């Protein structure tokens, strides 16, 4: 979760018509939860849907970096004050209205660190 707090954009993976769908989204870490702005066109039905979330930071020159994947349950935020607070904290990193916010409660957190790539 500490690494996820270092970046602001990742990809949410969810089920749409029983098929996996991936969308780039803004996020922030709040304690043990991940708060995600889901664009209106994402059509994420967030009634406690299990989702995956991936974010990374990889330097193309050195080929070093990391990737973190969170799997957990997404629930919509419904409290207007809470939504306004997160809108302010998230800022506008990706275009579009920020009218749908979800909280992902992690069940599984995995990752990989890329440190010493083999020579070409």
The secondary-structure element order is: EEEEEHE
Look at the helices and sheets and give the structural class: mainly beta
For the largest beta sheet, what order do the strands appear in spatially? Answer: 1-2-3-6-5-4
CATH fold node name: Pnp Oxidase, Chain A
- If you compute it from the alpha carbons, what radius of gyration comes out, rounded to the nearest whole angstrom? 15 Å
Helix content: under 10%
Query: What fraction of the residues are assigned to beta strands by DSSP?
Result: over 45%
Q: Please report the number of helical segments.
A: 1
Mean pLDDT: 86
Name given to the CATH homologous superfamily = Electron Transport, Fmn-binding Protein, Chain A
Q: Could you state the oligomeric state of the chains shown?
A: single chain
What does this structure look like?
By secondary structure, this protein is mostly beta strands. The chain has a single domain, classed as Roll (Pnp Oxidase, Chain A). The chain is built from 1 helix and 6 strands, in the order βββββαβ. β1 and β2 form a beta hairpin. It starts with 8 loop residues before the first strand and ends in a 6-residue tail after the last strand.
